[in-house]
Amino acid sequence: MSLQARLDQITQSTRKLVQPERLALSEKLLEDLLHTGIEDRVLPVGSQAPAFDLPDAVTGQRVRSADLLALGPLIVSFFRGRWDPYCVTELETWRDLYAQVRQRGALLVGLSPETLRQSEFAAMQHHIPYPLLHDANSGVAEQFGIAYDLTPDAQRYYRSILVNIPFLNGGRNVMAADDTHVWRLPLPATFVISQSNQIVYSEAHADFRVRPEPEDVLHALNTSAGSLGIG
């Protein structure tokens, strides 16, 4: 079963369990986000990738993109957090494919604004073998063109479904907080970066229910590695 097929199953189950009015609000928020034009701001193929230096959720050590690229091409997967079943499904899919990534001489990292503690929980619970890095305030996501601030309506929606974004992202248990930096998320996005630091694959969607198929990402990885004589 493809990744998208598994994600579609989550969507179908949600529609059976969630009240119609809440589903309608969720669809309206997705539409509003799409209309901001954020998908047009995503760094495209051919761009130079922004450098990052972020802490690993499990080891606490700093991970530098330059060091990773010195070893091989890099897949960078931005996810919203362990609270999102779509993100967890994608994390687990890459977990199961991680051996194929490494066979191609490449590396993979996941970036999220959630706290180190939350990402550590995700890594342990779902047996994630690749680094999950803490992108505080979605700062790196902003450089890739995929960060956005949740509107007041979106903030109210997440409070209504008991997803405490300020706590998950900033370690603050303040459901009513309107601080912009903790009410910030990245679009779920996947980039493949060649060892010359060029983006050779770029995909992000305002609709969090849509994710790229790993086979397409691996194909871009093959192209990148092949150009360098890897594999």
Any overview of this molecule?
- The protein is α/β, with parallel strands linked by helices.
- It has one domain (3-226): Glutaredoxin, CATH 3.40.30.
- Helices cover 43% and strands 16% of the residues.
- The protein is built from nine helices and nine strands.
- It has helices at 3-17, 20-35, 65-69, 85-103, 116-125, 139-143, 152-160, 165-170, 214-227; strands at residues 53-55, 62-64, 74-78, 107-112, 132-134, 147-149, 184-186, 189-193, 199-204.
- The strands form three sheets. A five-stranded mixed sheet has the order 5-4-3-8-9. Strands 1-2 form a two-stranded antiparallel sheet. The protein has a two-stranded antiparallel sheet with strand order 6-7.
- α4 links the parallel β3 and β4 (107-112).
- α1 (3-17) runs antiparallel to α4 (85-103).
- The longest helix is centred in the middle third of the chain and has 19 residues, at 85-103.
- The chain is globular.
- Residues 173-178 and 226-231 have low confidence and may be disordered.
- Cα Rg: 17 Å
Mean pLDDT: 92
Count of helical regions: 9
Largest sheet: 5 strands, mixed
Please give the alpha-carbon distance between the first and last residues: 27 Å
CATH topology: Glutaredoxin
Sequence stretches where pLDDT stays below 50 over 5 or more residues: 173-178, 226-231
Question: Short description, anyone?
Answer:
This protein is of the alpha/beta class. It contains 9 helices and 9 strands.
